[in-house]
Amino acid sequence: MYALQMQNACQGEDEPQPEPCMQEPPPPQHHVNQDYSKFDIIKATQYGALDRVTELVEIGADVNQPDSETVTLLHWAAINNRKEIVKYLIAKGAIVDAIGGELQSTPLHWATRQGHLATVVILMRAGGDPTLRDCEGSSCIHLAAQFGHTAIVAYLVAKGINPNMPDRSAMTPLMWSAYKINSFAYFHSLDPTRLLLTLGASHSLTDNCHGNTALHWAIIAKNNTAIRTLVHYGASLDTPNFKNETPMMMLEPHIGAAWLGHKFSYELRQKQGRSKVWCRNKNVRWYCMISTPFLIFHAVGMIFQSNIDYLIKLMALVALYIAIYTANNYIFDERLYFVLPMSIYLATKIWIYITWIFWLGIHAGWFLWLLLVTGSVPLWVCFLKSWRGDPGVIKASHEKKLDCIINLAENGGFEPHLFCHTCLVSKPLRSKHCSVCDVCVARYDHHCPWVNNCIGAKNHKYFLGYLLSLFGLCLVVLGATIQYWQFECWTNLSDVHTADSYLVTAGTCDAWVMWVAANTALHSFWVGTLFACQCYQIMILGMTTNERINAGRYKHFSKGNPFHRGALQNAADFCDCSFCGLKAKPSSDWLQTCNKKDGVEKMPLLDDNYQYV
After folding, report:
1. Which residue, 328, 325, 330, 327, is CA-closest to 276?
2. Among 5, 9, 487, 515, which residue has the fewest nearby CB atoms (within 10 Å)?
């Protein structure tokens, strides 16, 4: 038993190791086509025979009469999730907080231990007290945290239970969750550690036996998920326990171990000062990573532009690669790699503008200048809106999150398509939680690394404008490049030369312009392809990128696309406007339009119909 282990540890024994907690005694095994007419009231309650229970109560059976183990009927109904019998027994005067069994538990303890959220809701509505403790000193929230019943933890906190409530050994629910529940080992359930931290649980509290924080207990259990989560939420690595051991000291022998993970080991080495990074200031490393693509682009272009031998150019490129690899070990920060794609985009565009000013613009006509200037305005406006704009993040106050938890728990339970366990908000239709941004986004399309932001309901139009403007800019630059080559490189060529000869001449004439033109052509290809795919999905399919990739996971797509209304109507709906005689569908607020249970795939977090027989 967990609490007894803690008591023994307080008396000087070794720290407790994970082992199964003592279970309440199960009823006999169920048999198909069982005749309930001969069952006594205890057996009828265990098997959920409501008619037999009703019959026996009506002829005088006492609903509060305990069996030989002091277990009441309400205990047996609770442990087996017999919701209708629970309601009936309460209506007939059953004591909601009756104490029984070897653990001296209430029916609410039994339901909580087995993860029966529906029964927990019924018992608490009837006045069940979740703060009562069993003989181990555990209340309901401790049991829910020990067994990984995340939905029950959320419901109890939403109903006013302190997430920092200590048990007999001052172990908090967060400590139990960090010690007992590893999301990889318990892949069928959601990790309550993150939820407790989100709901305000403190990671700095210590227990009375060992002086351990939640992080200490996570390290003892080698719970890498809880360790990383706690550190992410600011848990101290330098808090000593009664043995004067800090979490960092306990982690030192495991740095580099497979269970801890390479990335987290790298972060620990940085905190220890053992990493190779020359500068430990995160801001400095961020600027280094941002500026590196600008320098590399220029360096490669200058190597091509130089008049040195081709073999020496190749050696210079190899040396540049070695320098980049070295910088990756000493300057870059693995946690900041997400900024590189956008930095590469910005570097390419800035050098294109510089090339236009000092090379291409000299021979470009006024019309190309006009296209460049007028096209750059929507390009940068749409880029900034896509990058820094709100993609449609679903937000809620702490009070609304608690109300949402209570509402879902009391009306059918938590389901992934209805509730985000990370953000603690109701999930609107077509929304998705982005693991990169760690937010829920309405009408989620995808996370774009080139703008370092999600693309959703509020910035999808700007993203399309950004792609179209960028594609047009690339075409303008390529047109000006051809004019530049005509004036500077091809004037002495005869008409008999092939296309390859023209390209070779352009490259030898001005390698920098060729380097910029090659990058521009590459950008125009992938940007044009991406824009075409987006238009195809929006108009022809009426779907987002996420829906197109994961349509098989959504049951509401099994019988066709409920959002498709024809190409032109789809375009009108997306633009939220009317044109060519088409009327846009009444505007849908994708931040508020929530999923419906009917016709939507149900994937419950907790199996409320599990029968303990």
Report:
1. 330
2. 487
Q: What is the mean pLDDT of residues 519-548?
A: 96
Higher pLDDT, 601 or 524: 524
Task: Assign 15 a pLDDT band (cuts: 50, 70, 90).
Answer: very low
Distance CA 244, CA 401 (A): 39
Three-state secondary structure call for residue 434: strand
Stretch 557-579: mean pLDDT: 84
Q: 110 is written with which tokens?
A: 């039994």
For residues 469 and 379, the answer to whether their CB atoms sit within 8 Å is: yes
Whether residue 137 has pLDDT greater than 50 = yes
Distance between the two ends of the chain, CA-based, in angstroms?
22
Interior/surface letters 534-558, b for 16+ CB within 10 angstroms, e for the rest: bbebbbebbbbbbbbeeeeebebbe
Contacts of 310 by beta carbon, 8 Å cutoff, 6+ apart = none
Residue 447 has phi, psi (to 5 degrees) of -100, 120
Choosing from 423, 440, 448, 474, which is the catalytic residue?
448
pLDDT at 277: 56
Q: Which two tokens stand for residue 473?
A: 């800019």
Longest CA pairwise span in the chain (Å): 113
Annotate 503-549 with three-state secondary structure.
Answer: HHHHHHHCHHHHHHHHHHHHHHHHHHHHHHHHHHHHHHHCCCHHHHH
What does residue 225 show for φ and ψ, rounded to 5 degrees? -65, -45
Confidence at residue 129, expressed as pLDDT on a 0 to 100 scale: 97
Closest by Cα among 596, 593, 595, 590 to 392: 590
* Residue corresponding to tokens 């939820």: 195
Which of 79, 80, 104 lies closest to 4 in space, CA to CA? Answer: 104
Q: What gap in Å lies between CA 158 and CA 199, rounded to an integer? A: 9
- Quote the pTM value: 0.83
Find residue 434's DSSP bridge partners: 439
State the Cα–Cα distance between residues 115 and 605, nearest whole angstrom.
Answer: 10
3-state secondary structure of 339: helix
Q: Compare 604 and 149 and report the one with higher pLDDT.
A: 149
Q: Is 448 a catalytic residue?
A: yes
